[in-house]
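Researcher: Structure for this, please.
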Amino acid sequence: MTLAKDLRDLFVPNRCLHCKCIIPNQRLFLCLPCDHQLEFTSHFEEHNNPLEKIFYGKVDVSSAASLYFYHKKTPIQTLIKSLKYFDLQTFGEFSGKSVLNELKKTKRFKDIDIVIPVPLHPKKEKERGYNQVEVFAKVIAENIKAKYLKDALIKIKYSKSQTSLNQEDRNSNVSNLFTANPQYNFNQKHVLIVDDILTTGATMISCIKAIKALNNVNISLITIAYAI
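Model: Predicted structure, token format:
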């Protein structure tokens, strides 16, 4: 077994996902210089942080936080892209565990009852083969003893990618995009919605409005990254 592993490492070396340099097998995802480019937020312990301010006057959010700041052409973009399009679920799991470490340091995000991943449209999930935030959401839910509900939100329209859209077009693209599953009653519950990346907040706002249309709930949000 060791010989087979040594041969694999010799001919298929472990490489940094971002810069492609060869890295030690014990390193995950990135070389040390690329890893040092990851920029952590202070959202988890910061009330009225920039992420929460996105939702002021639009929807009520109890607490909101992201792990990393997102910048184009940097290692975090590579990691998010690999998670979203190349099924790098180990990064989703790693990010979930990183969130748990942050939650231990703060009194915010207490008493979460339900964790919900932002859903893909069934057609898109079938095409891709997975929802990239499911593992991330499951790790959080299992460790905070909350109920994980994959189908609590339903994406009812097949929308085009948000990547190239400005804020006005993003808002239009996700308007009335989601509906809450009526089989669940979330009244008086604290619901945590999770996603991979938040940019303008349009997708999250659509999710929150869908849930609040049927339920009297407190809602908090956590994403892996926040695009500034």
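Researcher: Any notable elements?
Model: The chain has a mean pLDDT of 91. The chain has two domains: 1-36, 39-227.
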